[in-house]
Amino acid sequence: MVKPCILCQSKPTKDGYYKTELLEKFIKFMPKTNKLYCNEANQKIHMSKLIPNTTIFYFATRTRDFAKPIQMRSSAYHKLENSGVVKVNSKGETTIHLKCPQVYRNDDGKVYHRHVHFIYWNDKNDTWGENLFTKKIICKIDENSVKKNLKKAIIIDALPEKEYEEKHIKGSFSLPYNKRWTEEDVLKIVGKNKLKPIIVYSWNKNCDASKKVCLKLNKMEFYNLVHYENGICKWSGPTESSLKK
Asked: Could you tell me if 9 and 117 are in contact, meaning their C-beta atoms sit under 8 angstroms apart?
């Protein structure tokens, strides 16, 4: 019996990756050798705690406008075009390049967050291994993408309330990284649809407030989100203030 391509473990391994068996339907689309390659990409993801001095094949779902309806798994993965083969250095680190993968709906109806799969090359057998590893990811978007989706997505400001009140992207909502809020609080913003497109931002690339909010939203199963990493610091579009004049 073939296991479904899902994150079948409730918790990741000690290295932070989920582990399952490789699906047979993926094998026919995998490269036959470990020759390095990289397809067109808009995301750069650093990977660590890998097996040093190895080669990995990585793949994810195809990219798709996150405002469009969620696709089924088979359509989302298609022929594994969103993929590449890279070397892992002596420190167990590498960088992968791919297009922002879409969230997808599994055959059982469950929707899964954005993630990338990878497989180690087995030098002894001169083939790819049998274990499939998975890493959760959060896609980054630029200012043009934010402006394109201002009317389609919910914009979330992850900064403390005081900073939000001073200036924020016009139409954005406040979900401070340093305050407690619940799933019910988020639903009051996005409505009943937990798959509503969400864009999260904070101050700039060096501010981790938005990352913390993204991770918390993912845990609450708000999976259809992306990160505007340049933040309000670099934003050239319309802003507003909540302070009384």
From this structure: no
What would the two tokens of residue 88 be?
A: 């892992």
Burial readout 50-72 (b: 16 or more C-beta within 10 A, e: otherwise) = beeebbbbbbbbbbbebeeebbe
Residue 14's pLDDT is what? Answer: 62
- Look at residue 9 and tell me whether its pLDDT is greater than 60: no
Q: Nearest 5°: CA angle at 178, between 176 and 180?
A: 80
Q: Which residues contact 47 (CB under 8 A, 6 or more apart)?
A: 88, 93, 94, 95, 96, 118, 135
In the chain, ranges of CATH 3.40.250.10 domains = 140-240
The pLDDT of residue 109 is 92
pTM passes above 0.85: yes
Q: Pick 245 or 18 by higher pLDDT.
A: 18
Largest CA distance in the chain: 71
Q: Is 239 exposed, middle or buried (0-12, 13-18, 19+ CB in 10 A)?
A: middle
Convert the pLDDT of each residue in 159-180 to its tens digit.
999 999 999 999 999 999 999 9
Please compute Rg for the chain using Cα positions: 19
Q: Which of 102, 25, 26 is nearest to 58 (CA)?
A: 26
Looking at domain 140-240, its CATH superfamily turns out to be Rhodanese-like domain (3.40.250.10)
Distances (CA, A) of 105 to 6, 74, 120, 162, 202: 10, 9, 26, 38, 29
